[in-house]
Structures are given as C-alpha cells and as structure tokens.
Design a protein that fits this description.
This protein is of the alpha+beta class. The protein has one domain: Glutaredoxin. Helices cover 41% and strands 22% of the residues. The chain has four helices and four strands. The chain has a four-stranded mixed sheet with strand order 2-1-3-4. Helix 2 links the parallel strand 1 and strand 2. The chain starts with 15 loop residues before the first helix and ends with a helix.
Length: 119
C-alpha cells in the first residue's frame, strides 16, 4: 500500500540550473517528465520509481513538472508526456515517450547499469 502523500514524495527538478547540477553530480539518473494533468503519468510514475528502487538502487529518480519548468523540457527536447530520460555518466542512454513499458525500461537499463556499477 502506497502512503497517502506518495505522489508528492518525489525529488523534483526546480530549474534548468538545478537539472544541470543533478546531471553533473549523479552517475546514473532518470528524469521523469510529466505534469498533474496527465492521468497515465500518475499511474506510471510510482511503477517506474519502484522498479528503480528494487532493481537499480544507484540510479537517482527526479520528477520534472513540464508546467512548472517548461525550459527544462524544451532544453531536453521533451514535447510530449510522459517522457523518461536516463543518463549514465552525463550522457543520455535512454529516451522514451508516451508508451513506456516497465519491462522495456528495465531491460534497457540492465546491462549498462551492470557495467557501470559492477565491482
């Protein structure tokens, strides 16, 4: 059971400068672009978050509200929601919009994550 305030619990990108700081300071990061008007986004977001927590714990999750920070979306060429961007070592590894499957995302992240974080 998810906590009542679960949808407000996500770390959120506050500006383009903040986005760039997060990108520079995290080895692996997933940015989830959406806004509160997107019902599909609301259903998908906790699934993506949980999948990261369970399978890729060193990948940081950040929510980008496209209404509050349209410059971040524009700078990243995000024109539809939901959109997921995954960066490893500052380089874009994965980009997917609209129809995003959790299994597809998990498969796309598996090998690069293993290579980056294997000891």
């Amino acid at each position: 059971m998810l906590p009542q305030n679960f949808y407000q619990m996500y770390p959120t990108v506050e500006s383009l400068d903040h986005f760039n700081e997060l990108l520079a300071s995290n080895e692996a990061v997933l940015f989830y672009f959406s806004n509160d008007d997107c019902n599909v986004c609301k259903v998908l977001k906790p699934k993506v978050y949980e999948m990261l927590e369970e399978n890729f714990p060193k990948t940081k999750f950040f929510y980008v509200d496209t209404k509050l920070t349209p410059d971040v979306a524009a700078q990243n060429r995000v024109f539809t929601i939901p959109t997921i961007l995954v960066f490893f070592a500052g380089s874009e590894l994965f980009r997917k919009s609209r129809y995003i499957g959790i299994e597809e995302l998990q498969e796309a992240l598996g090998r690069p994550y293993e290579l980056m974080f294997s000891e």
